[in-house]
Each structure stands twice: as C-alpha cells, then as structure tokens.
Amino acid sequence: MKTVTIIGAGLAGCEAAYQLSKRGVHVDLYDSKPHKLSPAHHSDKLCEIVCSNSFKANRVNSAAGLLKEEMRTLGSLLLQCADRCAVPAGGALAVDRELFSAMVTDAILSDPNITYIPEELTSIPDSGVVIVATGPLTHDALAKDIAARYGESLRFFDAAAPIVAADSIDMEYAFFESRYGKGGGEDYLNCPMNKAEYEAFYEALVSAKRAPVHEFDVMNPKVYEGCMPIEVMAQRGVDTVRFGPMKPVGLRDPRTGHRPWAVLQLRKENAAGTMYNLVGFQTNLKFGEQKRVFSMIPALHQAEFLRYGVMHRNTFINSPKILNSDYSDKENKSCFFAGQLTGVEGYMESASSGLLCGINAARVLNGQETITLPETTMMGAMARYISDPFVTDFQPMGANFGILPELEHRPRDKAERGQAYADRALSDLKRFIEENNIR
Fold this sequence. Notes:
By secondary structure, the protein is α+β, with helices and mostly antiparallel strands. The protein folds into two domains: about 5-160 and about 315-435, FAD/NAD(P)-binding domain, CATH 3.50.50.60; about 165-310, Elongation Factor Tu (Ef-tu), domain 3. Helices cover about 30% and strands about 15% of the residues. Helix 2 runs parallel beside helix 13.
C-alpha cells in the first residue's frame, strides 16, 4: 500500500492525514505525544488547541469565514468537528476545545488508513512522500535538521510589524519618496508627523497596554535587541524612535516643503501593492491598542489593519525561498510543509494548508500534477503569498482580503465588498473542483 509520512499531529497534520486517507492512501502519522510535550501543550490528545478557542469569524463575507467555507467545500475534517462542537460566540466559530480535540483524535485513531506512531522524529526522512507539520514550537532536534537543510531560512522568533490595506491609507497625508531620492520613487510611502502629532503619539505609545508574554516566549537578549518592539524602544526616550524607525532625514513633505518632525515609512507587502507593512514597527501591544495608537498617525487615521504585529516564539521557514504554491519543496516535490511552519498564521489557516498538502501528496503518489487553487480563493491566495518571491522580508500571514486580486467592480460598502469576494471565490473554487476532478 502507498504510504505518506506526516510529522506532527496538530491541526495541519491531522487534516492532511484525513485527506490522504479518504483518497485511499495509508499514512504513518508521527507525533511526540504523549511522551514529550512542547511547553505550550498539556493534553495527550491530538489537535490540541493551546490558545483561544475561537476560530474567528464564521460569516462568509469575512476573510476568515470565506476560508472556512472553502474548507467545507473541500471536505475538511476539522470543520466537520468544529461545527459539531461549536459553542456560542456571536458571529465567530468557537469550540469546546476538549471536545474538539477528542473528536479529531477519535477520527484519526479509528481510521484504518492512518497509523499513529507516538515517536519524535528528529530529522526529515530522505525518501518517500513526506509532510512536515510540526508547528511553531517544533522540537529542537528537528528544527536543527530543518535549519541544516535550508541554511539560515529557519526563524525561531516571530517579530512582525502590522500590515494595513493600501486603499485605507489617507493619501492626503502621505507621499511616495525614498530617502535622498535613492531607489524607486514608489519604494516607500511616507506618513509624516509634525512635532505636536508625534509627541501625542509618543505619549500614547509608551503608556499603551502590552500583550502578555508566555514563559516559552521569553527571548534571548541578543534576539530581543534585534527585533525590539517599538514601544520598548520608545521607553528609552522621546527622541529614540524619531532617530530610529521614524527618522525624517532625506525626506521633504510636499505639503510643507520642509522635512517632517517624524516619518513612518510604509513598504509594499505584496507585488500587487494592495498591502503595506509598517517598517520598523515590530510590536507586542494588544491588538486594540495597536489600532488606537497607530491610527494617531495622520495618514493611518482610517487604516484597516490586515495583520496586527506580534512577538512570540514561532518557528517558521522562509517559504518564498523554499516552497512552491502547492506547499512542496522547490528542490524536492515529494516533501511538503504544512501549518504555521510555512508562515500561515491561524488555526484554520494551518488546517487549510494541511488540507492542500494532503490532496497534493496523494496526487504525487498517483503520478498526477499537484494543484494550486485559484488566486481568487482565500486558500489559493495564501498559498501564493507564502511562496511569492517578491516578499523578501517574510513574516507570517493570516486570511485577509488584501491578499486577493482586486474586484473588477469594487463595492464601497465593506460588507458588500466582502460578499463579492466570497461569491467570486466560491464560484471559482467549485468550477476548479469539477474541472480537476477533486474528490
């Protein structure tokens, strides 16, 4: 019988195993549980939910809801379990975490095509079809093996700055220019501040509430210095940020003809230019505080935040250099990576990558071409984002409408716009499934 090796029995690994099994492929599913747990895990069950029990919005006209509907369309095991053990959470899909884990564990362990092997693999097998889905807290031995195979492409700490939607930036207060005219004229979008605006922003920044840090997230001092949160930097003095990430040298505000007091620079996050990264604004502020404080910058007063900044331990590979858009290794089409290890951010994002890895691993075994879903789908857009060579300073990304191609006719109303994205995505997905005979 044809067999695929999966390393890791979290959300991505379990979803991949299920997808392979229903296509008649045997799976050897390895996980260190129950003999060895990561610092974040406590249960011996598979697919343990370690943080929030919410899988985010469920309505189809939201980015998170569209992702779930695409997964349901493709027959996701995890969505079947989540829908059956949902708890009241307004418009979100939240689950009874113990029941959810138990249901997935039962489904995996009772599947005759899946052999669960409670052992820690310390290296990626050199033969056969393999899916690596060990998550953001990959054990040290395997992490070292991955780093040895891919050079310096393995990150051990996630220090991400926020990303905003391009069309939510107020261009009345922003201007394109590189410092001293170097580089392309539109390499950076500058958000200037005068002295009064900067000082108000500074006071809000140093007093803003920070997210709690888990014991296993405590940073090595050298690493911490290299990815210092903007709010920690600000604690060193009122001008520290203004002489650092917000230095205004080499720039002139076309509105005044003078150099601004301080400048936040934004850099394109994707080739389409629909998303911009806040350069140098790694942060550990609570999400609501990020929205409140960073919106004090005039050009961002109406900004839509597509991803908030985070700082925590997060093992992930530099996927744009390593992976194809089908989640396979560019140098070895029989080796796939799934889950947060690839740089997708979120529970269902991880599961969706596992779903596609399962489909594609089965296709490799059957001598078929692998698939990448249409770029208009959330799953397809995420797969393309994490493998986009344009993305040079790669950081994890969750589902958001900013990674989708622009609509031909874009509604002004946000809910209507989300519904238009969803209608297009689901229509294209169903047609793709039929044309490629995906069952």
